[in-house]
Amino acid sequence: MLTAETGAFMAKRALITGITGQDGSYLAEFLLEKGYEVHGIKRRASSLNTQRIDHIYQDPHVSNPQLHLHYGDLTDSSNLTRIISEVRPDEVYNLGAQSHVAVSFESPEYTADVDANGTLRLLEAIRFLGLEKQTKFYQASTSELYGLVQETPQTETTPFHPRSPYAVAKMYAYWITVNYREAYGMYACNGILFNHESPRRGETFVTRKITRGLANIAQGLEDCLYMGNIDALRDWGHAKDYVRMQWMMLQQDEPDDFVIATGVQYSVRQFIIWSAAELGITLRFEGTGVEERAIVDGIQGDNAPGVKPGDVVLKIDPKYFRPAEVETLLGSPIKAKEKLGWVPQITTQEICAEMVANDLKVARRHALLKEHGLDLPISLENG
Ligand code: NDP
Ligand code: GDR
Predict the structure, then answer these.
(1) Does ligand 2 lie within 6 Å of residue 144's CB atom?
(2) Where is the NAD(P)-binding domain (predicted)?
(3) How far apart are CA 73 and CA 88, in angstroms?
């Protein structure tokens, strides 16, 4: 971007809420590579919570940083307004959220405040500051809006039927984004993203819980993985592919809403089988309903010294069933392909392999330390 006065090059400025999360970290990397000045909002926590962005952190004391972190929270309007007025971003990516569906049943009011009202607070801050004609806004909408699905595959016109406090809050966020576009002419878009995963995925989402849990079991650090509805069907893509699309959506002439998906669906059970296979473990499932379990049938290679044939490595725990489940999701990426030329590049099975490889590396390190009497505690809390 050239400035009118000096003709000098000015980097575009982006503000990312949720920069410490999975998508925020990949998006920050992506935008920095594109030459953006990136600002991110991080929450105050009693322990450091910047692990996913530590590798791109730039020390303001020794460099001219292109990455800036601001303390803030989506529940705090004055904080959001101050940050936006200081940064005056060209693009705002609202990725911050209480993003766990099961947790939203336990903390419904907080989820609504962050995910629904938080979106309103950001939009209103942009408008209040008179930036509604210059700041573009991306809202992290979700396939959870479809919930009890009305048609398959789901497209931009499929009716919504949210099935959790999270999804209901995100439905408000979806419509308030559309409303600010229609009412104030804001460049505001919804990306209706289907599940997307990576080695940076939070440990309590199903894919990461599986890859991390089975890697730990393979290395003898854990005995058994406890799961909920393993017959749920999801359309899983890679977070790296999906953040590219988030940026592409803000580079169009006109704002619009897009489904981002792979168009292919697998079961949680299939993801378990793939993950085990990556570790050289063949599983057989026995029993039905809450009695179902996965048993080691065979082992190949040397990735799984911690298990032997006959070991029960997975059981069902009804604690992980949801009060209202989303059984099946399958998205149609046709509009994204036709209008933006976006196609996902990484398949679900490749994602699974990358995640297992990453979690196996970590588990091996822990196992090695344990072997030498340096038993580092690993968190077995897995949501
Ligand atoms: P994560 O859970 O990994 O990251 C969420 C981010 O939001 C974290 O940085 C978290 O901070 C931050 N956050 C949470 N609460 C607040 C708050 N009160 N104020 C400010 N920031 C907050 O999610 P993902 O990266 O996976 O997802 C990004 C967005 O996309 C979310 O809005 C999610 O709902 C949505 N989405 C995700 C999909 C997916 O499959 N990943 C699919 C569709 C939509 P901290 O690190 O401190 O916890
Ligand atoms: P989801 O993702 O609810 O789709 O939301 P999650 O990975 O949590 O669950 C996917 C499916 O797996 C089933 N499941 C389990 N899930 C978890 N977390 N733990 C288990 O033990 C378990 N056993 C089975 C679930 O019931 C569900 O059917 C994610 C989040 O990233 C949201 O923020 C985002 O909006 C949607 O994806 C699209």
Answers:
(1) yes
(2) 15-355
(3) 18
Ligand 1 centroid distance, CA of 173 (Å): 14
Q: How far is the CA of 140 from the centre of ligand 1 (A)?
A: 9
Nearest CA to ligand 1 atom 41: 196
Q: Which residues of the chain have a pLDDT value below 70?
A: 1-9, 377, 380-383
When the candidates are 2.160.20.10, 3.90.25.10, 3.40.50.2300, 3.30.930.10, the CATH number that belongs to 206-233+267-325+347-371 is 3.90.25.10
Determine whether the shortest distance from the Cβ of 306 to ligand 2 is under 6 A.
no
Please write the tens of the pLDDT for every residue from 336-379: 999 999 999 999 999 999 999 999 999 999 999 998 988 776 77
Q: Report how far ligand 1's centroid is from the alpha carbon of 342 (Å).
A: 23
Query: Which numbered ligand comes closest to the C-alpha of 208?
Result: 2
Ligand 2 pocket, 52 CB below 6 A? Answer: no
Measured in angstroms, how far is the CA atom of residue 358 from the centroid of ligand 1? 21
Q: Is the ipTM of this complex over 0.90?
A: yes
So which residues are the catalytic ones?
142, 144, 166
- Ligand 2 atom 36: the closest Cα is on which residue? 195
pTM: 0.97
149-201 pLDDT, tens per residue? 999 999 999 999 999 999 999 999 999 999 999 999 999 999 999 999 999 99
Our answer on whether the CB atom of 228 is closer than 6 Å to any ligand 2 atom is yes
Q: CATH 3.40.50.720 in the chain: give the residue spans.
A: 13-193
